[in-house]
Design brief:
mainly beta, 22-stranded antiparallel β-barrel, five-stranded mixed beta sheet, 18 helices, 52 strands
Length: 997
């Protein structure tokens, strides 16, 4: 079919529906999504096992009751507790945070996980990050969450590669409901690594930066309050359910936990390796000297690199503070027997602040004058020799931490709107339709604080004397910058507020994303038309439809940020803007083949196809086929194949290249003279031996990369195969078990190769493809200046593949059945995932490396990976519905106990695969992240019209597994662990109540 014909037809249908939609009243409830599979996901029952028993594709569901039992108010915490989910952006990320909360199914990446509300897309949540922000979801309004495994592009369109997370919202509520939750963290400090901090405190030049927290800490208080008001229309044909919600969470500092009170070095033991830190420390560094604060005189002493470090960990946020307001309404009204209008209106205003260690002058080349008015004679002689006291200049590495100014902060604010208006109904007994318009937008404002401006640093270091004999900037004396104030870092206590006011420069960013969708679908049952298998009870069911979607993004920063003028910032932040649209046609069919025959209690097939025409990449096709066979009642076999496509998003297409923090390694840095790598590094990068030996290792393991988009990207394609069995034995009422195998392979995946992969492949193989991407600055460094970086822009790289088995089981029974009379009932729910394989192929033609059961600087960042990758995870929950009651004042008392398990994860650097094996990163402290088992206790009861709940997650206050800084991957690793994966803050205590009026 000619693609222009398709575009014309789809545009016409979109315009016709737009006119019709605008003429409808603004009432609504969530509509049934287009297509049989979509509908099945939306209308599944509220019990956890029910979706998994009805779907051809494996689906795991979480009910509102379970959400309340966990006490969580952050949606990402809820989803990340499922074995299918891997950690992504969330409240425990500070350095590298976007202020959003995103989801990553199967470890294939946020951009490959599609998030829906009632079967419709959630708009991308941030102009600098492509994933949907689930902060937008009001948890108190969630009726159920369905997690669909594997590709579903034939149903939902692009992005549904790893799977779909569909939030089903509460509608048709009548009355007034007030729901409130209060939570806090409590932890008993007593980890053995506290001895590491004490040891460092004893030998540090600045022991005040190595303080330990008190033994018993309580922090991170959180509150959420939600008001829901619903009413039916007088004629019973409609309903409107409105809500207002507020959530507030307080910050937790890393310094409030003993295991994160310093940044741990990697080594044989943590005690032997000691605390690490940043070479940008206090007192100030001048070349190979530092200010001697122990001397009564203003003088230098030789710098000791292992001792003169700044403990940057304690001031980082372990948990970001957050304030969120939400408003919304779901409404619907039947205007005719064949027509129901509906609308969804949702709003969120969310503000979160990320904080990392104070800024200052990060190690770099700066110039001082040899007659500096702030320096002592000893200091000038040490630096300038015979030129001391003259106007001569010296250029050297200078650094100093701005401890007087406090931490560097990024204040994120996201303001989101989502509108849906639609019309749906039944044309007759066999045919129904659904047509809707959707508009979603996110406004973003960001403010960076606590950073110095590099050019102003240089001005403040060149100091002479004014006419009155007082120290003054040379820039002020010669009129270059009359506002300049000297920065006195030549002695302890010399920094003034005026100097900080001059140097500290805020920067600002603004942006917005918008998504427009027009969708019309028609579904029908063809049995009455004779389209039916002769052995089946039901006829063929079909769904056809068309969709138009447009996405646009604009992001801009002020001149300070866009020019990269901030010292210690991530580099220049260029503006981004772009858009694309897509026209689509789709069709699905469910074909019952056999019912109620010997060995064929039920047999049916499912097929689907979607054709898409993108303005950015051209046309794509996706399809699915599957089926389920129930040979006898209670035993069901199912399987499916899905071809999915992910088109590159706007950021991947249009982000300009800029130098940012990207890697954690430079194999050529900090080498001893006897190391054989010295000669190899000299040869590879055209350096002398002396130049290689002079390359400084970054104490914080942070190196630059030149990253950016690529307008020539092609779409990713993926194949998903699922095979499973569902057992609902009639001899054991209330029991069901599903076992499903999944195999997902993504080809031509869109991502940077990775700075660590590039630099290591260069040094290991001398391959010019990789070595040509390494650009060292004049000092041979990849971090001292923005001229040193690894070129790591976005390309269509190799492939991703994950295979494994999901196990879901539920059993609900009265205790009377087993002879325990009048003691209520038990419900047992088990969800487990065995990860057989999680392979990454960095480039076409390369062998793949398997990250299942691994973590590290490659296996926690490569491809879509963003966390440790346990081979086995499970949740086992037992709920006891007790018979205990005391009239209306106390009844429906329940007790729940949950066991969450994470299997041991090994360091990728120890793996035998040569692409992962790295002797330079093999440390006993990091060899493995030990198995973790967490137990959660919850209670619930009712009294008249109030339902209470309380609980403790991580009941036994288990500390998280720890690893050293050499294998602490940037952003995802925070506070010597992976806090988005493991319980890093101790016990989580909560109480809540729901009042119905």
């Amino acid at each position: 079919m000619n693609k222009h014909t398709v575009r014309a037809r789809l545009l016409a249908s979109s315009m016709i529906f737009a006119v019709a939609g605008l003429a409808t009243p603004a009432f609504a409830a969530a509509a049934a999504p287009a297509g049989d599979e979509v509908t099945e996901v939306v209308v599944t029952g509220t019990r956890i096992p029910s979706p998994n028993l009805q779907s051809v594709s494996p689906v795991t569901a979480v009910t509102a009751a379970e959400i309340k039992a966990t006490g969580v108010t952050r949606v990402e915490d809820l989803i990340n507790s499922l074995p299918q989910a891997f950690a992504a952006q969330g409240s425990s990320i500070s350095n590298g945070a976007t202020g959003t909360a995103t989801l990553n199914l199967r470890g294939l990446g946020v951009s490959r996980t599609l998030v829906l509300i009632d079967g419709r897309r959630l708009v991308p949540g941030d102009p600098a990050s492509p994933g949907a922000d689930v902060n937008f979801i009001p948890t108190s309004l969630v009726e159920r969450v369905d997690v669909l495994t594997g590709g579903a592009s034939a149903v939902y369109g692009a992005d549904a590669v790893a799977g779909v997370v569909n939030f089903i919202m509460t509608k048709n509520f009548e009355g007034v409901r007030l729901d409130a939750t209060y939570s806090t963290y409590q932890h008993d400090n007593g980890n053995p690594v506290a001895d590491v901090v004490r040891q460092q405190q004893a030998r540090s030049a600045s022991p005040q930066f190595y303080a330990l927290p008190k033994h018993n800490v309580r922090d991170g208080d959180g509150t959420q309050v939600t008001l829901v008001i619903g009413t039916n229309s007088a004629d019973g044909k409609g309903n409107i359910t409105a809500y207002a919600t507020y959530r507030q969470n307080n910050a937790v500092l890393e310094g409030n936990r003993d295991y994160s009170a310093c940044t741990l070095n990697s080594g044989d033991t943590f005690l032997a390796a000691g605390c690490g830190g940043s070479g940008t420390s206090v007192p100030a560094r001048f070349g190979s000297f530092v200010v001697d604060i122990t001397s009564p005189n203003q003088q230098f002493r030789p710098r000791v690199a292992a001792r003169d470090l700044y403990n940057f960990g304690p001031t980082n946020f372990y948990l970001r503070p957050d304030d969120r307001y939400g408003l919304g309404a779901f409404a619907h009204y039947e205007v005719a027997p064949w027509a129901e209008v509906y609308t969804d209106l949702m709003f969120m205003d969310d503000r979160s602040v990320a904080q990392i260690a104070p800024g200052g002058i990060f190690a770099g080349n700066f110039t001082i004058n040899c007659n500096n008015a702030l320096a002592s004679a000893q200091q000038l002689t040490t630096l300038c020799g015979a030129d001391a006291g003259t106007p001569a200049n010296r250029t050297l590495i200078i650094s100093r931490r701005n401890v007087e100014g406090g931490g560097r902060t990024t204040d994120f604010r996201h303001t989101d709107y989502r509108y849906v208006i639609g019309l749906r109904g039944h044309l007759n007994e066999n045919w129904s339709y659904d047509a809707f318009l959707q508009y979603g937008t996110v406004g973003f404002k960001g403010i960076n604080g606590g950073f110095f401006q590099t050019a102003l640093i240089q001005q403040s270091l060149l100091v002479g004397r004014d006419a009155a004999g007082q120290p003054a900037c040379l820039a002020a004396l010669n009129g270059t910058n009359p506002a300049c104030v000297p920065y006195n870092i030549w002695k302890n206590g010399g920094v003034t507020k005026a100097a900080l006011d001059f140097l500290q420069t805020p920067s600002f960013a603004v942006g917005n994303t918008a998504e427009r969708v027009a969708n019309v679908s028609l579904s029908g049952a063809l049995g009455d038309y004779g389209v039916k298998s002769p052995w089946a009870k039901d006829g063929v069911g079909v769904a056809i439809g068309a969709e138009y979607r447009r996405e646009n993004l604009d992001f801009a920063t002020d001149f300070v940020a866009s020019a990269g003028l901030l010292n210690g910032g991530a580099g220049a932040v260029p503006p981004v803007n772009g858009a694309f649209d897509v026209y689509e046609e789709f069709a699905e069919a469910r074909i019952p083949l056999v019912d109620d025959q010997p060995f064929f209690h039920r047999l049916q097939l499912e097929v689907g196809y979607r054709y898409s025409d993108y303005s950015s990449i051209g046309t794509t096709s996706t399809y699915k086929f599957g089926g389920d066979w129930e040979p006898v009642e209670g035993v069901r076999l199912r399987g499916g194949f899905n071809r999915a496509v992910r088109a590159p998003n706007i950021l991947e297409l249009f982000t300009p290249a800029s130098v940012l923090l990207d890697g954690t390694q430079d194999p050529c840095a900090g080498l001893a003279a006897a190391n054989p790598l010295v000669a190899k590094c000299a040869s590879l990068f055209n350096l002398t031996t002396a130049q290689v030996l002079a390359i400084e290792k970054n104490p914080a393991n942070q190196y630059n990369g030149l990253t950016g988009g690529n307008p020539n990207l092609r779409p990713e394609t993926s194949n998903t195969l699922t095979l499973g069995a569902v057992f609902t034995p009639t001899f054991l009422p209330g029991f069901n078990l599903s076992i499903d195998y999944f195999d997902i392979k993504v080809k031509k995946f869109i991502a940077p190769v990775g700075g660590d992969v590039i630099i290591n492949r260069c040094v290991q193989t001398s391959d010019p493809f990789f070595c040509s991407k390494v650009n060292r600055d004049a000092a041979g460094s990849l971090w001292l200046s923005s001229q040193g970086f690894v070129r790591d822009t976005t390309i269509n790289t190799g492939a991703l593949r994950t295979r494994g088995i999901d196990i879901n089981s539920n059993y609900r029974f009265d205790l009377d059945r087993y002879g325990i009379e009048n003691m209520g009932s038990l419900t047992i729910n088990f969800i487990g995932t065995y990860l057989k394989e999680l392979k990454v192929q960095s480039l076409p033609g390369d062998p793949s490396f398997d990250c299942a059961g691994l973590y590290g600087t490659i296996c926690s960042v490569a491809g879509g990976l963003s966390s440790p990758n346990p081979t086995w995870r499970h949740k086992l929950r037992v709920n006891w519905a007790t018979p205990f009651a005391y009239g209306d004042w106390f009844h429906d008392f329940g007790v729940g106990l949950q066991w969450r398990h994470f299997s041991r994860v090994r360091l990728d650097a120890y793996d035998k695969d040569p692409q992962l094996n790295n002797t330079g990163l093999q440390y006993a402290t990091d060899r493995a992240l030990a198995t973790r088992d967490y137990f959660d206790l919850s209670l619930n009861w009712k009294t008249k019209n109030v339902a209470f709940r309380a609980g403790v997650n991580n009941l036994f206050d288990r500390d998280p597994p720890l690893n050293g800084s050499s294998n602490c991957a940037a952003a995802v690793c925070n506070g010597n662990t992976f806090p988005q994966v493991y319980d890093a803050l101790g016990r989580f205590l909560f109480v809540g109540a729901t009042v119905d009026f």
